[in-house]
Amino acid sequence: MSQIKDQRIPDFLISRSLSELRADFDRNSLEAWANAVVSSNEQELSKRNAHMLIDKMLIDQMLEAAPSVRSSIIRPPGNLMLTVFAWFLSKKTINRVFRQGVNDMRQEYFDALEAGDEREARAIVREYYARLIWGAFMHIGFGWIEKIVGKFKK
Amino acid sequence: MAKGMPSDVEAEILGLLVAKKRYGLEMVKASEILKRGTVYVYLSRMEDKGLVRSEVADETGPLAGRRVYEVTGEGQRAYEAWRQAQAVLNDAAWAGGAA
């Protein structure tokens, strides 16, 4: 097993991309540093292995240097609205009317995100929320008008 | 069973569906008078009247439950009746204007 004398990354390498670091590695003759981290007392690492070891150390260092970068899974927009609407609208109405609207919203939202326009994606969600809430009032209104007209016809 | 003449919005939807099956969003993008969010209120009512029918196109994923719509025979007849009525009204308007 090889010993590593010094695993500390030089300050000027921190906060740079791996490709930049590799480019500098060749340009700035950092091979001397690569050789220095591998002990010559025990089994000597090949140059390629030494490079891989350095890459791993660099990646570990970069991950430590950027603790705020986290991936997370978020729900697509519209779940909350469907849950609220389910309190006062029938399942048939939800599936036929509002789930369709939410699906349209998600499609346009994902298209905007794919295009890299987060601002547009948020605007789409706001607009759809307003339209679908208006649609809910409209749906309830139609129902009331039909009932009233039906009573007059009798 | 359809009752009476379709409204202008319903006729617009029928006109779009006569050509081919479509999603709601597709219809909104192809039309100037249909609005996002409210188009499904009309489609639901038209389905109750028997003018259109729908089937679920996406079973899974974030767009699960998405429906594709097509016109029924009743819907085609209603659309033809609406077109003929519009033609008669247009002719009457032209005749009135000419007199």
Q: What portion of the residues of chain A fall into strands of 2 or more residues? A: under 5%
SSE arrangement of chain B, N to C: HEHHEEH
Biggest interface goes to: A-B, 25 and 21 residues
Query: What is the structural class of chain B?
Result: alpha+beta
Question: What is the strand tally of chain A?
Answer: 0
Task: Tell me the major beta sheet of chain B.
Answer: 3 strands, antiparallel
Number of helices of chain A: 6
Return residue spans of chain B where pLDDT drops below 50 for at least 5 consecutive residues: none
Q: Provide the structure class of chain A.
A: mainly alpha
Q: What does the radius of gyration of chain B come to? A: 16 Å
Overall helicity of chain A: 55-70%
- The quaternary state of the protein chains shown equals heterodimer
* Radius of gyration of chain A (Å): 30 Å
The average pLDDT of chain B is 87
Give a short account of the largest sheet of chain A.
none
Strand order, biggest sheet of chain B?
A: 1-3-2
Describe this structure in words.
The complex is a heterodimer of chains A (about 150) and B (about 100). Chain A is built from six helices and no strands. Chain A has helices at about 20-25, 30-35, 45-65, 80-90, 90-115, 120-154. In chain A, helix 5 (about 90-115) packs antiparallel against helix 6 (about 120-154). The radius of gyration of chain A is 30 Å and the shape is rod-shaped. Chain A starts with 17 loop residues before the first helix and ends with a helix. By secondary structure, chain B is an alpha+beta fold. Chain B is about 55% helix and about 15% strand. Chain B contains four helices and three strands, in the order H-E-H-H-E-E-H. Chain B has a three-stranded antiparallel sheet with strand order 1-3-2. Chain B is elongated and about 55 Å long. Chain B starts with 7 loop residues before the first helix and ends with a helix. The interface of A and B includes residues 93, 127 and 130 of A.
